[in-house]
Structure formats: C-alpha cells, structure tokens
Write a structure and sequence with these properties.
four-stranded mixed β-sheet; 24% helix
C-alpha cells in the first residue's frame, strides 16, 4: 500500500472559514470563495471615567482579515497526520470551522477614541492673586483642576486583541501649575508684610513711618512669591530720608526789619544712604521686622558766613517776570507758596541752583494744594499746579544772569500764563523734572522773589557780586507751526445726561528757539534753548446718553 499524500498547495478537506467550505481549494480559490464576506462586526462599549459609548467595531477601525484566516487553514492542513489525510481521501475528514480573523487599524481607532472623548479634556486653570480693594488685602482666586484623556492604552489593547468588546480609556486629573494652596501661602506672607513700618535716623530721635498701604505698594504678590518693586522701594526710601534727614543749612541772608543780615551756617545729620537702603530693603520685606534704624552721617554746610558777601555789597544782577491773570485760587496758593520757598535761597559759587531742592519738594506736607497740571497728555487736576509759574520766572531771571543751563524741561504745549515770552519757560515735576543752572559768577548769589497776588505778577531777582558781562536774550524764533487736531469727547458717567464740560483747550504746535548772547572778557558766545510744543486738542466731557 502506498503512502497517503496531499498537495501542500490546497486546503485539507473538511475545513471551513466562517461557514464557507474551503476544503480542497488553493489560497487564491479560498479567498475568492470568501469574497466580500465579512463577519458581523461586534458592538464595542467604550468607557472614560463616568462616560460610556457603545458603537460598531468598524467605527473603531475593526475589519475582517480573510487572508490571515486562509493562512490559518493552510497551517492546519500542513499539521494533519497520515490518518487524517487518509480520512480526507475517503471523504471522512474531520470537520473544523475556522473563525474569520479580524484586525484593527490603530490610526482609525485612535482618531475615533479622540473624537469620542474630546469633550472630556479640560485645561487646568491656574489660581491667581489679586488685591481686594474693599478689604485692602491680597486674596486668591481659586484654580481649577483639569482633565486629560489618554487613549493610547486603549488603542494598544484593541490592536492586540480585536475580539475585545469593551475598552477603557484612561482619564487623569491635571493639576494647574499654580494651585490655590500654594498661592495662599504667598498671600499670607504678602498680607503679613502690609503693616506700618517705622524708620529712625541714628540716635537723633527723628522718625518716619510708612502706613500699611504704603508698605503694600512696595512689592507684588505673584504666583512665584513676593516680588519687590524696586522703583517704589527707592521712591519710598527717598520720601523717608527726605522726612527724617536734617541737612546742613548754608549761611544765608534774612530780613531784619528792612535790612538784610547774615545768618550763620548750621551743620546737619543725614542718612548714610548706601548703607541705609540695604537695611531698609531687607527689613521692610521681612515680616518679623516692624522698624529699622538708619545709619547717619554728619552733613557739613558748603557755604559759611565767612564766605558770604556783606549784604551791602550785593548788586542786582538780573530780573525775571511773569503774570498769572485768571489763575484759580488753588493755583494762586501754589504760586505764593513756591515763591516763598525759594525766596532767600543762596547758591554758593560753582554750585548748581536746583529748583526742587530749593522748594523742598511738591507735597501736601510742604504746603501745596491741588491744581491743574500737565500729565499723561492731558491737563488734569494734580498736586502743585502753578509751581511752574515760579520755575518759569526763576528760569528767566537766572538765564538772563548768564548762568549755564544744567537741566531744563519744557511744557508739552504752549501755556497762556507764560506769554508773551513764548518758549521762555521751564517745567518742573516732583520727582524727575528739575530746573538747574550753575552759578558761574564767582561769588554766592541770592534768589529773591516778589509776588503780588492782587496784580497777578511775579518777579524773581538774582543778587550777588555782578560779573563783568552783558547778557542779551532774543525773542523766540518760530520755525514751524502745526494746527491743533479736532476736539475729543469723553463720556463721564458722573455728569448728568446732556451735560457738556470742557476740560482741556486747543493749542497749535510750535517749533521754536530763543538765543542768548553773552559778552565778557573772554569774548562773545551764544547758546540756544529749543522748544517743541505738541499740537493740543480740546477735550470735552459729556454726560451719558439718556
């Protein structure tokens, strides 16, 4: 009897694939017999957190794989023994039904799962710090935990086992970068720092105090912690030292009856600023500290009575004049106060006259009141409106005395109070904008002011040992003029409906210069003061529409 044989290219009798008889067929014939037959796609339940979806597996990339099933039948055929082959030859082969194999397209599965769960993804929201104006304390706006869906694990599992009928998608909480708990710690520290803070000048007994709100202005409470505000720290330090310092007083003149007499100099005590600032910055930002002692140093006068010329030797060197018709009561108060502050100031030879130093600063404590000032491109209510009337008049006197200009600033637009000497003016602002001229006369000079409120006139005189020179200041030369823009209307909710109020006035822009000619033993020299005025628009406030 011969050995039972069977072609290795055909599938053994009795084998079926998904109910289709493929026995005795080649792989190509079996694939053709299966045709487009596809096993019924199962329903798959997808879960993500508390959410579930049930859908056909085909939407998740599931598909029947006939070729793999045919290869499985060929493998079974090759593994059959002699007896099974003989049974097949006589029509008694064992029957076996092979399921139609399935496969999953990973990209399609990922896309489908991402679409299903897209609405579950929520970005975390950071907690934030804000300053509560009602309580005047820092507070935290709570953050929100986010949700992040990760479909990768479910895709991997489904590709490995397409028979799965349930898939679990991972849902994880995503904490914000800045949590409420972390920011609460920063806010607690920030609120603890907001306390009154007192400084003392050495052993002088002189003290200055910052209020809790003033201290709170020295730093920011950020998500990362306490962030010092270097600008306001330095400004606060400057205000404190200006308050507690006792600067030396130079020898000066004072009226005794109708006669000028000499007043001796006086030594002072001031803050050792470099060392004191380091102490201030460290202690004011330390919740455990409520005060600090600033190191001090002696301050010596720069002009002694011995170097002060006798009052009888003083000569009138130059005069500056201006008028301030139509000024408000507040503006007149500031003109009077500023004129009185610089009256009697003595500037030593070779030193600079500083208007702000002579004034002692523009503050309520120094006697100044609210008035119209130019700030931020507008004419607005501000402290010290009218001080520039005095700085302008002082500039005219000192400039006509021939003193070199060290620092001078102009106003933004042409101001009627300084007419008709257009461009011959000087703006000051505390802090930051000063008027400074150097005393090059070779002797001390005395600044004298004469204010006539009834006549709305102000005169500033420069007295000293008159230098041998003549000074001529020419009228302004206007090189360009720009027309002012149209008016601007701003709604003011505080006005009654239909009300219109003008708060700023139009002015054309100008480019101009004035020339000074100085003749002395060294010859003739000239210099210029240039000014560029912006075109200024009228501004009207209107009440809201009814």
């Amino acid at each position: 009897m011969g050995v039972a044989t069977q072609s290795s290219d055909t599938i053994a009798p009795g084998l079926r694939i998904a109910g289709v008889d493929v026995g005795g067929l080649t792989s190509e014939q079996a694939l053709a017999a299966l045709g487009n037959r596809v096993a019924d796609a199962p329903q798959v339940t997808v879960s993500a957190g508390k959410n579930t979806w049930t859908l056909s597996a085909t939407k998740l990339g599931w598909r029947a794989d006939a070729e793999t099933s045919v290869q499985a039948a060929l493998k079974i055929t090759a593994e059959r023994g002699v007896l099974e082959r003989l049974q097949g030859m006589v029509g008694a082969a064992p029957e076996q039904d092979i399921p139609l194999t399935a496969a999953v397209d990973a990209a399609q599965a990922r896309a489908a799962l991402n679409t299903l769960t897209a609405g579950l993804n929520t970005a975390p929201r950071n907690a934030s710090v804000y300053f509560d104006k009602a309580s005047k304390r820092y507070a935290v706006k709570p953050g929100v935990t986010g949700v992040k869906v990760n479909v990768s694990g479910a895709v991997t599992a489904y590709v490995a086992n397409p028979a799965l009928t349930s898939l679990a998608v991972t849902v994880a909480e995503q904490a914000p970068q800045y949590t409420t708990e972390a920011l609460n710690a920063h806010v607690k520290q920030g609120n603890a720092l907001a306390r009154p803070f007192t400084v003392k000048l050495g052993t002088t007994g002189r003290t200055g105090t910052l209020s809790a709100l003033q201290v709170a202005d020295l730093y920011w409470v950020r998500e990362t912690g306490i962030v010092p505000d270097e600008k306001t720290l330095k400004a606060a330090f400057g205000r404190l030292t200006a308050f507690i310092d006792q600067p030396a007083q130079n020898a000066r003149y004072a009226l005794k009856g109708t006669q000028l007499v000499k007043v001796p100099e006086k030594a002072g005590v001031v803050t050792d600023r470099a060392a004191a600032y380091a102490i201030f910055r460290k202690s004011v930002l330390d919740t455990a500290q409520k005060s600090a002692v600033f190191p001090s140093r002696a301050d010596k006068p720069t002009l002694t009575v011995a170097n002060l010329p006798a009052a009888s030797q003083l000569q009138l060197i130059s005069v500056g004049k201006s008028t301030y018709y139509g000024s408000s009561a507040a503006r007149r108060t500031n003109v009077m106060n500023a004129a009185a502050k610089i009256n009697g100031v003595v500037v030593p030879a070779g030193q600079d006259f500083s208007f702000l130093n002579a004034l002692g600063g523009i503050s309520e404590q120094n006697g100044f009141v609210g008035g119209l000032i130019i700030s931020g491109g507008r004419t607005v209510d501000g402290l010290g409106g009218g001080v520039c009337q005095v700085s302008t008049t002082a500039f005219r006197a000192l400039y006509q005395a021939g003193l070199p200009v060290v620092e001078r600033h102009q106003h933004s637009y042409r101001v009627g109070y300084y007419e008709p000497q257009v461009g011959f003016e000087a703006a000051v602002y505390d802090p930051g904008l000063d008027l400074k001229l150097k005393n090059d006369t070779g002797a001390p000079i005395l600044i004298k002011t004469v204010n006539n409120d009834a006549a709305s006139t102000l005169t500033v005189e420069v007295w000293g040992i008159k230098p041998k020179r003549t000074v001529t200041v020419s009228p302004a030369v206007i090189t360009a003029r720009v027309a002012h823009p149209g008016p601007k209307y701003v709604v003011n909710p505080g006005l009654r409906p239909g009300t219109v109020r003008q708060v700023d006035w139009a002015a054309d822009g100008y480019s101009l210069y004035i020339t000074r000619t100085i003749k002395d033993t060294a010859g003739t020299r000239t210099d210029r003061v240039s000014t560029v005025y912006k075109p200024w628009q009228a501004v009207y406030e209107t009440g809201p529409r009814s």
